[in-house]
Structures are given as C-alpha cells and as structure tokens.
Amino acid sequence: MAKRLKTPLSEQDVRALKAGETVYIDGVMYTGRDEVHIHALEYHEKGKKTPVEFKGAALYHCGPIMKKEGEKWVAVAAGPTTSSRMNSLEPRFIEAFGPGAIVGKGGMSQATVDAMKKHGCVYLAFTGGAAVLAAKGIRSVSGVEWFELGMPEAIWILNCENFGPVTVAIDAHGNSLFSDLSVKIKENEKKARAKLGLA
Description:
This protein is α/β, with parallel strands linked by helices. The protein has one domain (3-195): Alpha-Beta Barrel (fumarase). The chain has helices at 11-15, 34-45, 90-97, 110-119, 131-136, 177-195; strands at residues 3-6, 22-31, 58-60, 65-69, 72-77, 101-104, 122-125, 138-145, 155-170. The strands form 2 sheets. Strands 2-3-6-7-9 form a 5-stranded mixed barrel. Strands 4-5 form a two-stranded antiparallel sheet. Helix 2 crosses helix 3 (90-97) and helix 3 (90-97) runs parallel beside helix 4 (110-119).
C-alpha cells in the first residue's frame, strides 16, 4: 500500500521509509537542478540565507515548462531531470541544507547514498517520460525564485497534492535499488558467461 508524505518532512518520517515503497507527496515541493545547487552552496559559503528553506523539503530535479495565465504561473509539464547530473553537488547540498527528499530519475552516486544515510534523506524515483502526469500532481505554483537563472533552472515553488507515484529508490539506511540491480546484473552476466564457457 502506498504511503502519503506531507512536506516539510521530519527526520522520523524519512527514516521510516524503506527502499521499494511507493509514495505520494502532499505539500510544498521545490524544483532545483544544477544552477540551484551551485547558487545555494555559494550562498551557504558566504553565510547568506537562501530564498526558500530547504530543511526537510522535497527537492525535485526538474526543469519544468511553465506558462503564465494572468498573474499566475501554471505547470504545463514537469518531468524529472536525470539526477546523476547533480552527483558532484548533492552530497554537499544534503550536508549543508538537510532536505528530507530528493525527487528525480535514474539514481545517484554512492557518495550521495552515504550522505542520505548520514543526514536523513531519501531519493524518490519518478518515471521518466511522464511529465504531464507529474504536472497533474501540482495543484498550483505559489512562486518562483532565482528566475534570472532561466525557466528550467529557477526554484519553482510547487503546491502538490497526490504527486506521484514515486518509489523510494534510496532510503536513509543506505539501501539503494540501483546498487541492488547492478549486483543482480553482474551476477546474471557471470552465470551467462559460465554457461557459454567464457568465465
């Protein structure tokens, strides 16, 4: 049975999640790709306050397509960005800001898995190619920060209801569906090579 998560997330909420579980997200979620990570870390180093509070937040690796309707922004498509793009930045970001969840696609590095275990964060995998489905879970857009970085790189403040389904692909205990899959693939390759007499 799927779980419902309400942001901001407490460390207790995060530590209770297990790899393989299905989750839906309610509450505020922030988008953030490469430039948001770089800018936020620069702010942190200078002792400056970021325009949003990342502690316990759900940070979505997403460069959404937005359109303006009157005074309001509306999410047209909001599919996930490949998370490995942020591998060099994510461990430092998690340590500096303490987000509760990272949402994206494709998994992340072992250094990020280690940071998630240490600081209490999970990786929630969303299906790639489902940008319109993702947008359906966004009830409204309450604002945008760092818009000068460009539409895909800005921080979009999304009010979500029933956003998902997402899968707990990396939990806060160091378990990763991606590393488990990698091990299984290697085992199957070894078996296949042995059958063919190539081992």
